[in-house]
Write a structure and sequence with these properties.
5-stranded mixed β-barrel, alpha/beta
Amino acid sequence: MKMDRYMQAPLDKEEVKALEAGDYVYITGTIYTARDAAHLRMSEALDRGEELPIDLNNNIIYYMGPTPAREGRVIGSAGPTTASRMDKYAPRLLDLGLTGMIGKGRRKPEVTDAIVRNAAVFFAAVGGAGALLSKCIKKAEVIAYDDLGTEAIRKLEVENFPVIVVIDSKGRNLYDEVCK
């Protein structure tokens, strides 16, 4: 049975394990943004034995690069980007403690395997709804790789940020079930 769930970020592993593909989730708390260039930088830092600029444990990375904020707004349009572009980095980050990812589109089997192995979750945010999603972001600050512009890592404070569980911790994939 699909459910509406309200979750606090960083995530609680037991709550993540209770999620099922198709559940609607409203996230409140701290999440981080990172796209292709930031993922490459984090991978290179790990290869050099350096610490990452964010603590991955139980945290969520939102694959998003915002547009500039309009006057009086915290952030510009904040829609998801295609998750598969981060697939080569995701298993390593999941193995290091990342618990949630938000994006859009399908993931490779290696990512699903890492989600299951780490009792994690992949959420989808609605593409094309970036302006609407930005209203759930209450605070945004660049915390790493400022030179990357929109692809810099940002710390976001969100309130009732709407997502759908696409791949749950048991490996059930909403896309596979719905798009047969």
